[in-house]
Amino acid sequence: MRGAWACFWHSHPLPCTAPPYIYVGALIEFKNVTKRFGAIEALNDVTLNIGKGEFVLLTGPSGAGKTTLFRTIFAAERPDEGEILLSGWNVTKLRRGSIPYLRRNIGVVFQDFKLLGNRTALQNVFLTLEIRGMPARQIRERSVAALEAVGLSDRMDTRASFLSGGEQQRVAIARAVVGAPSILLADEPTGNLDPVLASDILRLLSEVAGKGTTVVVATHDPLVVQTAASDMEVMLDRGKVVGTRRANAVEVDASQEPRNEELQNEEPEAEESEAEVSEAEVSEAEEPQAEELRDEETQDEAAVEEPPEGEAK
Ligand SMILES: Nc1ncnc2c1ncn2[C@@H]1O[C@H](COP(=O)(O)OP(=O)(O)OP(=O)(O)O)[C@@H](O)[C@H]1O
Ligand SMILES: [Mg+2]
Q1: What phi and psi values does residue 299 have, to the nearest 5 degrees?
Q2: pTM of the model
Q3: Phi (first) and psi of residue 307, to 5 degrees
Q4: Which of 170, 172, 175, 252 is most open to solvent, judged by the fewest CB atoms within 10 Å of its CB?
Q5: 275 CA to middle of ligand 1, Å?
Q6: Which of 68-77, 143-152, 250-259 comes out lowest in average pLDDT?
Q7: Which pLDDT does position 95 carry in this prediction?
Q8: What is the mean pLDDT of the chain?
């Protein structure tokens, strides 16, 4: 399923003349990807293959590069070296104007949620679909179902800023899954949840993967690592992949220092003090989900039939 033109939104495997027309069948390939911030190598020669519908854990201590790896997938960061292919589409060579289309296929649960604090839980979820121009009744039904799935049926009309950290986290998950993305990236999605709720959310994410979405969960919570029924664990340390574990097999890069014990002993890092979620802080969430998508609606009208020109495969 490499580089197929097909319709994600309308759920058929054929080229589609209606937007959005970038289909991501969700095979994620990293080829020797390096991303530097000054002297820091946030990602260092990362090579990785994740199959469609797989449920993958991305583990590693604070600063290992987990969030950076996610950001390169939805093109918020461009690697300095290497390539990232999503179903054969080279994300690193996408034109800026094509990025919003790519992001329609990717649901993101941000580490700090990035909800609109002055909107209700339902409105936060609603917005993702509203931007796509879906009929209002359908948007409402899907949004309500997504919030029910994360156990928030009784908090739908509460402003996000009045919700607890765990409730906000669940709204963020509902918002990420409501658009039925082909890739779901969840950055510490259980960080604010008690063990029972965390296990419910992991089950939910695993079910999402079971329906064909490729789910990648970044975590440094040993409980998640132990309990999640993942297909693969990818261990990062200081930007490098230091090991991968597939179902029952473990492959550790012998050139790296042993990491397993370190990972086991690692204390969950103190989260940054719970940031006040406000409109002002939503810039990054808006980046893939709102502002650019608003731009995108304009582009949709102009760019319906043809795939973007010059996109590298
Ligand atoms: N925009 C940036 N500018 C400078 N340095 C950055 C930037 N983003 C990330 N880094 C650095 O890159 C490294 C990897 O950061 P990243 O946020 O990807 O780690 P992480 O594994 O997600 O950590 P955590 O578990 O704490 O969330 C860190 O050393 C971080 O300081
Ligand atoms: Mg992070």
Answers
A1: -65, -35
A2: 0.77
A3: -65, 155
A4: 252
A5: 17
A6: 250-259
A7: 87
A8: 77
